[in-house]
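User: These chains co-purify. Model them together.
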Amino acid sequence: MSLLLDRRQALSLALLPALAACRPRDDGNEVILSDGGSFWGRAQRRAFYEPFEAATGIRVRTVPFVMPGKLRTGIEQGRPIIDVADMSGAELPRFERDGLLTRVDRRAFDPEDLAGLAPLPAREFALPSFYASTVFAYREELFPDREPSGWADMWDVARRPGPRMLASGLMGQMGATFEAALLADGVRPDRLYPLDWDRAVRSLLRLRPNVVKYWLSSGEALQMLNEQNAVAGNIWNGPIDTPEAQDAGSKFTWNQGILQAGYWVIPKGAPHAANALRFMAFALAPERQAHFAQLIGYSPANSRALALLSAERRTHMPTAPANLSRQLLQNDAWWAQEDRPGLTNIALSVKLWESEVVR
Amino acid sequence: MSRNATGAAMRWSRLACVPALTLSGVLLLAPFLASALRSVAPAGQINLSAFAALLDSVFLSVLGRTIGFAALVSAGCLLLGTPTAYALLRFPAWATRMLLGAIGLSFLVGTLIRSYAWLAIFGARGLINSALHLLGAEYPLKLAFSFGSMLVASIQVELPLFILPLYGVMRGIDRRLPKAAQSLGADPVTAWFSVFLPLALPGLAVSTALVFLTALGFFTIPALLGPPDTYLLSQELEVRINTLGDDAGASARIVVMVLLVVAVVAIAALVHRAASRPLADRQPSVLLAGIRARLESAVARISPARWVPVAIGFGIVLVLLVLPLVILLPLSLSDDFYLRFPPRALSWRWPLAYLGDPDLLGSTLFSIEIALAAAAISSLAGAIAALALPDLSPWWQRIVTLVTVAPLVVSSITITAALYLVAIHWTWLDPATLFIAVYSVMGLPFGFLLVGAAAKRMDPRLADAAASLGAAPLVALRTVTLPVLMTAFGSAFVFAFLLAFDDINAGLFLSSSDRMPLAVRLWEDLKAAITPLPAAITLLSAVLVGIGYGLWQLAKLALRRRARTRMARAVADLLATAETR
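Assistant: Joint model of the two components:
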C-alpha cells in the first residue's frame, strides 16, 4: 500500500458522512451483546452479529465484555446492561446457584444443535459458546530444536534465559496461571485439582525475578511477545494463533494447554430476553459456528461445525481431537467452590495474588 | 438604597450558585456520603468489618506504595516544572510560545494516547531501542514495564497541570520587587530566593497538591507501562468492583481516598495561607533559614551560570512534552500491525481502518455529543458560580469554592466508582445521560477557576459602575461583564470538552448500553491488541482540530471586535449618564 489513495479508498472517504449519519434509535427491536474487542470482537461481529441483524432485522448493540463483578451487581439491582453475556465456565456455577440467570428455553433451539454441543453439554441456565486454550507461547528463536513439552520448559530460565510474561492472577482463573505454575513444578495433570495454593505461590515466586510483566489483557501479552519484550509466557490461543503473530516470530504449543469453556447466559431481568434467546439459537447453527472458527482460533461449541472446517483449519482448533488430547480441561466446578466461607476459589486466588505475588 | 441593592445582589448570587451546587451535590457529595454509609453499615446495621478487612489485607501496603508513587511524581514535577514556569516568564517569546503550544497540543491529544505513545518510545522495538540498535547496541534495553518508564510517563502527563497554575501565580508577582532587592544590594540569586520564591510559594503549594492528588488516582499509565509488581489504589479499587463485586470493600476504599484528599488539601491550604502573608510578617524558621542559606551559597557559587538549570529544566520539559506527540505521526501512517519504530512501510491502513469502521465512527459521534453537552453545562454552571462568588458572604464563598473545585482534586476514578455504586439504583436515568452528568461535574472547576480568575483581573469598577447607575445585575452581566470574560469562558469550555472526550475512567464502571465513548472503545481495543489505530485517530482528529482552530480564531477575532465596540458603547453610555447626573 502506498500513501496515495486508490479509487475505492477515496470512495470510502466520500461515504464517511453518510456512515456517520446512521445512528441507532431506541425501540424494543434490538438485543445487547458483548464485544470482546479486537480479534475476538471482530469474529463475534462478522460471524454472529451482522448475519443475525441481516436475517432477523433485530438490531444488535454491543457493550465491552462485562466483568463478572459488575454483571452481578447489575443483576442484583434489577438492571443488567446486557442481554447475552459471555461468561467463563468457572464463574457460572455461582451465578446459577444465586438465581441470577434466566433459564434457557430448549424449545427455541434446533435439537440437533443442542445434541452437537461437545465436549461440554448445555446447562440449565447457560450454553457453551466457544472453547479457548491458555497455551504456552514463545519466541521462535527460544526453541529452535524442539517443541516445548509443557510449562516446565517455560519455568526453565537456566536453560532458556530471557524475560517471561504471565497472565495476572488478578483475573482469577482466566489466565490459568495457577495451573501453569503447578504443572511447571511437576504436579501430575490428573492430580492437579484441588490446587495446592502454597506450592503454586512458591512456583510463582521462583519465576518472579524473570517476569517482565503480569498481563491483564491479551493485547498487552501479544505486544510483549511480538515486540520481544518477553520471550515466553502464557496467552490465550486466539490472539496468538494469527498470521500477524506468526509474522512477528511468535509461536505456541498445545502441550499442557489449559482448555477453558466460555458460556452464553441471559441475565435475569435482561431487557430483551426473547431476542437474546433467538440470538443464541441463531448463533449455534453449525454454519455460524464454523464461520466464527474461521475468523479466530477458538473452537465452536457445536461440534458439528468442526466437520465444516477444512482439515488445515481444524489443526487450529483447541477441541480438534489431535489437540484435545494434549491439553487439560480447567475444572470449573472446583474454581466456583467456596473452600473458605463466602470466598470462592476464584476470589481466593485474587487475594492470594494480591498478598503474595504483587506485594 | 445601597443596602437594598446588596441584598438583591446576594439573593441573585445565591441563586446563581444553585446549578453548580446541585451538580456537585447530587453527583459527587451524595455518592461519597452513600459510600461512607455503605462502608460502615453494609446491610443497614453498623458493621465495621469492611474497615477491619482493609487493615487485614494488602491495602495498607498498596496505599503506602501509591502515596510514594504520587510523591515521586510530584517531586519530578516540582524539579522540572518550577524552572519551566520561571522560564516561561523570562525567556524570549518564541521559546515561551513553543512550550505553551506543546502544552496545548498535549491537552488536545489526551492522556490515554500520550501514555500509549510512551509504549512506542520505550518498547523493545520502540524509538529509543531502535536508535540504540542503529548505534550498534545488542539486546534491547528493558525500558518499558519498569518503574522508570511509568514515572516518566506520569510526570509528563502531569507537567501541564503543574506548570500552568504556577505560571499564573508567578506572572502575578511584581517584577520590580526582586529588582528592588537587587538595587538595595542583594545579588540576583539572593533576591530570587528571598523575594521571588517566597512570593511564588502559594502557587507551588497549589500546583504540587494538584499533581499529588491526581497522581493518587492514576490507572491507565501504571496498567500500560508499569513493572510487573505495580499495584496501585485505583487498580485495587477496580478489581474490587469489576472482578470481585465487593461493594463494601470498594466503598471503604473510596472513603479512605476521599479522606486522603481532604488531608492533603488541608495541608496545602495551611501552606498557602502561611505563604500568602506579607513577606515582612513572616517568622523564618531556623531550619528553613538554614536550608535557604545553604541553597543560596550553593547557587551563588554558580551565580553567573544561574540560567543553566532553568534552561536545562525547560529543555527537558519541552522534549518530554513534544516526544510523544511527534512519534504519533509516523506511527499513524504505519503499515505494521504492532507498534514498531520506525515502521516497516507507510500506508493509509490505520486511518482507513478507522474511517471504515461504523462502530468507531459511532463512538466518535457519541463522544463528541456527550463532551459538547458536558462542556456546555459545566462551563456555564462554573462560570455563573464564579461571577456570583464575590457577592456572597465569606462562609458561602468557602462552601461554593470547595464544592465546585472538589472534582479537580478527587481523582476521576474515585468519583466514578462512588457514582457507579449509587447510580446503579437510578433505573430511571438513561446511562448516556449519566456520562454527560459525570463529565459536567468533572468540568465544573474549569469554568469556575478560569472565569473566576478572569473576573478578578477585570476592573471591578466597570460592573459597579453599571450597577450604581441602576442596571439590573443580569443586564450588567450581559452588557459589561460577559463580553470581557468570553475568552476565559471559551478556554473553560475547551478544557471541559477535552476532559470528557479523553476520559476512560468513567467508562471503566459506567457502561452505557446505548453507545460507547471513543476513548473507552479504544481502551477496549488496546486491551485486545496494541495497534497503531489510536495514533491514526489522533492524526485525523488533529487535522479536524486544526480546521476548527482556524475557524475559532476567525470567530474570536469577530467576537473581540464586537466586544470592543460593545464595551466602548457601554462605557460611553455610562459616562454620558454620569455626566447628566
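Chain A touches chain B through 75 residues (CB under 8 Å).
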